[in-house]
From TrEMBL:
This is Short-chain dehydrogenase/reductase SDR. SMART domains: PKS_KR (SM00822). InterPro entries: KR_dom, NAD(P)-bd_dom_sf, Peroxisomal_Beta-Oxidation, SDR_fam. It holds the Pfam family adh_short_C2. The lineage of its organism: Bacteria, Pseudomonadati, Pseudomonadota, Alphaproteobacteria, Acetobacterales. It comes from Acidiphilium cryptum (strain JF-5).
Length: 306
């Protein structure tokens, strides 16, 4: 007797599911038994243009595999539209169990050249979009006393990367959002986790390699397919992960990492308080070995993908 698929009878929303990691996750969730709302507006990696074609292609892939899916062309970056994405799940399938916040755009620029529009557009899709869709779904999850969120964060936020202040701030904000949802909604049996994926996608291919380090990083990314990220998303959305919440994971091809979260590392104290001079002469000599190096993502993940 075969075990039932891990997501049988469930309904999932996957944002940004028209291509890349979002498509891989949507297809994998459908293969695991979920009906899927493909929420995608079909824009370029920079957020330009718009077409229903990518989402329709994902739908065809899911249906060819015997799954069920519906397309929703609403944007995540506006509250009313996010609510309509959630309503689509109920209109099409009568329920909602899973939200995967994957939609995102890139507008990379060195910080002193980043425009306010670069900032607002990226934060609007990644961080505001994750909040809007999650908040709209939370009303239903609370009433049914169940639900799972999987949010896509990134090592640019967890560790750092050049030219991505907007993206990094949004992605680290998503970690705080996910943790807050996990704490606030634990009483309703609602779980929330964040995943930092690695993959060679349309967005990654827009990155311009200007140094030897950049070219080496791109070569490593090209070995990692979007599909490598899908199994963990399926697992985290399933009842098998009922005791996993508030966590941050990174996937790098066949490697899965649980990431640290901010906790005190080392402290100094002085009964009489501190002066700038005492900080210089005593506190920082003691603390210095615990300061975090100014590394970028590829400095930390420096080895070849396994």
């Amino acid at each position: 007797m075969h075990a039932a698929p891990m997501l049988e009878g469930r309904v999932a929303i996957v944002t940004g599911a028209g291509s890349g990691i979002g498509r891989a996750v949507a297809v994998a969730m459908a293969a695991a038994g979920a009906a899927v709302v493909i929420a995608d507006i079909g824009v370029s990696p920079a957020g330009e243009g718009g077409s229903s074609v990518p989402a329709e292609q994902t739908k065809l892939i899911i249906e060819a595999g015997g799954g069920r899916a519906v397309v929703c062309g609403e944007t995540v970056s506006r509250w009313d539209s996010a609510r309509r994405i959630v309503e689509t799940a109920f209109d099409a399938f009568g329920r909602l169990d899973i939200v995967v916040n994957n939609a995102g755009i890139l507008r990379d620029a060195i910080f002193h050249r980043m425009t306010p529009e670069d900032w607002l557009s990226v934060v609007g899709v990644h961080l505001n979009g994750s909040f809007f869709v999650s908040r709209a779904a939370a009303e239903h999850f609370r009433r049914q006393e169940s639900g799972a969120f999987v949010h896509m964060t990134g090592t640019s936020g967890l560790i750092g990367n050049a030219g991505q202040a907007n993206y990094a701030a949004a992605k680290l904000g998503i970690v705080g959002l996910s943790r807050s949802i996990a704490i606030d909604m634990q009483r309703y049996n609602v779980r929330s986790n964040a995943v930092a994926p690695f993959a060679w996608t349309r967005a990654a291919s827009a990155f311009r390699a200007e140094t030897e380090d950049d070219r080496a990083r791109m070569a490593r990314l090209q070995q990692i397919n979007p599909e490598h990220n899908a199994p963990l998303a399926v697992f985290l959305a399933s009842d098998a992960a009922r005791d996993v919440t508030g966590q941050v994971f990174t996937i790098r091809r066949n490697e899965i990492f649980v990431m640290s979260q901010s906790r005190p590392l080392r402290s100094v104290q002085r009964d009489g308080g501190w002066t700038p001079e005492l900080l210089r002469d005593h506190a920082f000599p003691a603390l210095r070995s615990s300061l975090t190096p100014l590394e970028r993502s590829h400095d930390v993940f420096s080895w070849e993908p396994v």
